[in-house]
Prior knowledge:
The chain is mainly beta. The chain has four helices and 20 strands. It folds into two domains: 4-120 and 272-299, Diaminopimelate Epimerase, Chain A, domain 1 (Roll); 127-263, Diaminopimelate Epimerase, Chain A, domain 1 (Roll), CATH 3.10.310.10. The chain is 15% helix and 38% strand. It has an 18-stranded mixed beta sheet that branches. It has a two-stranded antiparallel ribbon with strand order 9-10. The protein starts with a strand and ends in a 16-residue tail after the last strand.
Amino acid sequence: xxxxxxxxxxxxxxxxxxxIDARKTMPQLGPDAVRALSDHASGPGCDQFITLEVPQSGGxxxxxxxxxxxxxxxxxxxxxxxxxxLIMTELGADKxxxxxxxxxxxxxxxxxxxxxxxxxxxxxxGWQDIPLAEEFDDTRAIELQIGPIDDPILHTPSVVNIGNPxxxxxxxxxxxxxxxxxNGPMLENHMIFPERANISLAQVHNDGxxxxxxxxxxxxxxxxxGTAACAAAVAAHRNRLTERKVLVHLPGGDIVIEWRxxxxxxxxxxxxxxxxxxxxxxxxxxxxxxxxxxxKSDQGTEQSSL
Length: 306
C-alpha cells in the first residue's frame, strides 16, 4: 500500500516552494527525492523544498529548507513569508515565530491576506561570518572580478550574510546585459566562497529604488530571492547608494526592504501566493493536484491550513 504525502505549492514573487507538514510524521525524503520533486519535469517543481517541523525552542514552527539541488540551506526570506502566512492562518494570529537553523524569524500580517512582513534579523559583515576564504577588512567591496583585468565585466562586489552568503555586483546598465546565466555558476563556486554564495547584479536607480537579478546557490536564476533583496538593500545603504528603505524590483515582482536604524534589523514586506494543494505518492514520487486545502472566506480570511 502506497503512502501519500500532502503538500502545498506556494510562491513569493515567483520564488517557488513545495511545503510539507512534518510536525506529526516525518517523511523519509532524501536528497534524490527532493531533487526529483523540485524538478519541474518530474515533480511539482520549486526553488526550495520546505519542511515544517515541531519547534525546538519556543517558536510556533521549525522551518527546514532544502534547495532544488537537495542541499540544506540556512535561510530563505520568501519562504519565511509564505510559511508565516500559513502559520498565522493556523493560529488565527497576526504574528508568528518561525525557527530556522540560524535562529528565529518573526512574521507579521500585512494589510491584505497575502501580504506578509518578516523581520530577517541583523546582517553580518565580518569576512569570517559571510564566510570568505581570506580576510578582508572592508566587505563593502572585495577584490573579485570576471573578465579582462583592465576591463572586467563584473568586479568589486559587496558581500554580506543574511542567514546565507551573498555577493552583490553593482552595475550601471540593465541587469540583463551581463550574462549572469553564464557567470553565476562560476561565481557561486568561486574559491573565495567556501560555502558557495548567492550572486546578485544590482542596478541602483535612485536613493529608494533598485533592480536586482539573482543567481541563487543550488537553484540558479530565480524569479525572486528574499535574502538577496535584503542583502542588496543593506549593501546599497552601506555604500551610500540608497536610503535605508528601498523598493527592490525582481523578475517576479517588487518587494520592500527596510534596514531599521533603531536596531539594525531588516524588514522584508511583499506578497505571497497559495497556488494549489497536492499529494505525493512516496512509493514512486508520482504526484497529483488536489483541491485547495485553504480557501478564502467572504471576509477575506483563510479558514484552515496544512
